[in-house]
Design goal:
Radius of gyration of chain B: 18 Å
Radius of gyration of chain A: 17 Å
Strand content of chain A: 25-35%
Distance between the termini of chain B: 21 Å
Shape of chain B: globular
Number of strands of chain A: 10
Number of helices of chain B: 8
Number of strands of chain B: 0
Largest interface: A-B, 27 and 26 residues
Order of helices and strands of chain B: HHHHHHHH
Largest sheet of chain A: 6 strands, mixed
CATH superfamily of the largest domain in chain A: P-loop containing nucleotide triphosphate hydrolases
Distance between the termini of chain A: 30 Å
Number of helices of chain A: 7
Number of domains of chain B: 1
Structural class of chain A: alpha/beta
Oligomer: heterodimer
CATH topology of the largest domain in chain A: Rossmann fold
Shape of chain A: globular
Helix content of chain A: 25-40%
Strand order of the largest sheet of chain A: 6-7-8-3-9-10
Strand content of chain B: under 5%
Amino acid sequence: MSIIVGNGLAHRFGNELALEGVDLVVDAGEHIAVLGDNGAGKTTLLRILATALRPTAGRLQIAGLDAFRERRRLRHYLGYVAHAPGLYPALSAAENLQFFCDLQDVSRSRVEQVLDEVGLTSVAYRRSDQLSRGMQQRLAIARAILHEPRLLILDEPDASLGSDAADLLMRVMKDKTVVLATHDHALANRLCQRTLVLRRGRSVGTATRLRVVR
Amino acid sequence: MNPLRVVLAVARKDLRSEWRTRELVPALAQFIILALLIGNFGFQIDSRNASTIAPGILWLALVFAGLVAFGRTFAAEREQASLEAMLMTPASPVAIFAGKALAAGALLVMCEAVLLPALSILFGTPFSGDVVAAVLLATVGMAALGVLFAAIVARVRARELLLPLLTLPLWIPFVIAGGVAVQSAMGLPGNYQQAIGLLLDFDILFIVLTSLAARFVLDE
């Protein structure tokens, strides 16, 4: 069963065409990596898939629902790690997650479990502006999995994560459908079954593991 | 999903952040004291004209403090890139808006807790429950409008310029009705009950309108 079906996805920022006619089908449980240089349109595509950005053209269905008409319903279903961690600097790691528990309608008891999953238990009560960049990224990942989404959209989640990035991401991605943008081809090969390569906003092809278009 | 849980969570988060960083309230309290001092030295205040001038100074200080307080509500979220994360949750945008307005209103009330006694000390005007009630009622509607426009202009570059241009014209009804209420509470002519009734009407009207608009402003 296909979880994501995107047809002709395009987005313009003013006169600038960021994404042009991208088609994408992702099956349940599949992990797909989106590769491309800076400015290739990876973040734009991921923001569209996360329903954070409405495409200027094209159609997107997630779990059989129109992604933009039903986007409030879909927010229970998907978790998104954006390019910037987007944390509240004056709140501790635990408080950041407790706040999102309230917004996600999830029990606050989940916080401890998620912090353990991303390896932040020891800094749970440290203010998030006092965490290293890698720890902040882990906290952003923890926030994205707080409500146990079935679909994960991860925009360069490996940024600043350190040597155990792949192990952490593998744990987090287990049993989920995942679209992941990265510059790291080796990581993409290790974590994903398939890759989509973007160049100047266009899809230049997909490949299965180890056959990435360069 | 319980909208009240979202409203309280958003308000608690904003107030807790302000308590820890102390970015806004001390600066606003300082601004208010300076505005009152300038008003006090700029006018020839005596026992005969104090009640005439004091309400004007009060509303000027309150309006400009409000613009700063409400302007920060969404600007800070955008600077931290946290607004998108909040809007990516299934929480109702109206509940998020209400939580932000509640917190911003509470911050302005903290400033009013400095403003009203200081006004009474510097201008010798009565510090009564009637004055407090008028100011608090005006704060409710001003917070609803101010936070809505702050959400709209948060996406544009010239937000510091646009916020007063959009907000001030719609705050005029609160300044007029609030001005009459405060003047009559300070012993000048004016119908206090009628002015308070008007403030209540404006509050209800603008809370309903801004709640309806918030859904579209925050959802897009």
